[in-house]
Amino acid sequence: MQYQVIKSKRKTMAIVIKPDGMVVIRAPLKTTTKNISELINKYQHWIERKLSQINNIQKHNTELYFLGRAYQLEMLEDKFSNVELGINTIKSYADSIEEHKIKLIDWYKSQAKLLVMPLLDKYQKLLALKSQSIKITTAKGRWGSCNSKGNLCFSYRVAMLPEFVIEYIVIHELCHLRHLNHSSLFWELVASTYPQYKSAEKWLKTHRYILANLFI
Ligand SMILES: [Zn+2]
What does the domain layout of the chain look like in residue ranges? Predict the structure, then answer.
């Protein structure tokens, strides 16, 4: 087992396992190599268990999409959950795979809300339509929905799409407030509001397989 020893003015020894699996021994200045190997022997099972947990999480590391771009998902072990968007990575901190999923979905939900709300405002005014309620859901199978009561739902996964596709999805659902079907009148309204809707549909079609196989 590889580990790093950091000696400092402290009274007791401690084993710290970093999110990337690095084992660090913090020890008082007078600590000997024998003291350290005794400590490691004593806690070997605990260290191994921790490292295998981290290993298990790392195995699930994969790609995610945000605003139409692929990001490397890095899941790091931490008891404080958090999600950080980097230039090419989405870092998730949590202490189990389930917790990573929950936190990532929460993060996508709040991003989806930020992206969808201004578009709804804009197009509700433009089309003189008003929804009864708007919800960001954890639905995985559909991007959005509209019911006869005028309630609109959008999946947290819309935040994975490029902005021009999110715009199309918002318009698509809003147009259902007038036509609750996919009739030619419905498509005429979509096309006149958003002439480039076909390229958005095409994007969804070409990315369908990738998007369906993401971690969340
Ligand atoms: Zn529809």
Answer: 3-59, 64-212
